[in-house]
Amino acid sequence: MAEAGLIDHTDAAAGIRSRALEGPRGARPRRVLSRRNIILYGTLFVVAVYYLLPLYVMIVTSLKGMPEIRLGNVFSPPVEITFEPWVKAWATACTGLNCDGLSRGFWNSVRITIPSVVLSIAIASVNGYALANWRFKGANLFFTILIVGAFIPYQVMLYPIVIILREMGIYGTLTGLVLVHSIFGMPILTLLFRNYFTSVPEELFKAARVDGAGFWGIYFKIMLPMSLPIFVVAMILQVTGIWNDFLFGVVYTKPDIYPMTVQLNNIVNSVQGVKEYNVNMAATLLTGLVPLVVYFVSGKLFVRGIAAGAVKG
User: Fold this and answer.
1) Which end of the chain is more exposed for a tag (fewer CB within 10 A), N or C?
2) Please, which residues have CB within 8 angstroms of residue 259's CB and are 6 or more apart in sequence?
3) What are the domain boundaries of the chain?
4) How far apart are CA 270 and CA 260, in angstroms?
């Protein structure tokens, strides 16, 4: 027995020595400063600086007074922070004949954006749902027309739409501009919703049909509750596109109801008096604040919507 125990201990010791000679097993740990990581993070850093540097210059310039701006160092932080450029850009800057700042344009943009977003998303979601789950006669032709419409340049249709809105009696009104934004947002939104609803398991739709649910019952009770991510994607796209629009705003409205972007253009391109760069920067930041807030608040849902089928064919 003693000899057997000695042999077992000898075999165990031999096994340990052999494993020690073989060296460590498993994947080799990666070096933190490898060539791959240096290139990857270096590229990301350069891209981040490229996009953040103009924003930094805009912010610091908007917080400086004109005497400090005339010193010429655009990258230096403000020696004495002032919010007067922001107040003037919002309330007293001249945007043409009126000198009430961007406040009037802000509320005009709100009155344009909210109904346009709601109307376009509501119609496009129903279109995408119908094209994905209800095969009706002419569905493929209808979808093809929508896709072609998404790639038609806006400039080609400016004048015909002016004539249509004039004949309808809504040219130069907010109603006409809301209608234009809703129509032009329809093709891409319908494509997004169709692709999303196509990714939903077909068995779920068939089970609802077997249970007796109809077109609207399936849409409101099944599709709508599980489609929050794609609705957020559509909302961000529409809010960003409509709020930042300049072309439609200047063509289809009049000075009293100009959106915020048109008023910003009037402030920045003003040639009367001294060029107030701090006011211009503050006005630009105020104009872009709403899309930024919307994106940062709902950014996670935006990523989920894209990953869940927003770009799937």
Assistant:
1) N
2) 105, 108, 109, 112, 177, 243, 245, 249, 253
3) 103-310
4) 15
Read off the pLDDT of residues 256-269 as tens digits, 9 standing for 90 and up.
899 999 999 888 88
Query: Which residue in the block uniquely carries the two structure tokens 């068939």?
Result: 206
Query: DSSP per residue over 185-218, as a string?
Result: HHHHHHHHHHHHHHHS-HHHHHHHHHTT--HHHH
Measured between alpha carbons, how far is residue 151 from residues 121, 144, 160, 163 in Å? Answer: 19, 11, 17, 22
The one-character DSSP state at 308 is I
* pTM across the whole model: 0.79
**C-beta neighbour count of 152 within 10 angstroms:** 11
Q: Residue type at 288?
A: G
| Intra-chain end-to-end CA distance of the chain, in Å | 73
Give pairs for 7-11: CB < 8 Å, separation 24+: none
Q: Which range among 13-27, 68-82, 151-165, 286-300 shows the weakest confidence by mean pLDDT?
A: 13-27
Q: Tell me, which fold does domain 103-310 have in CATH?
A: MetI-like fold (1.10.3720)
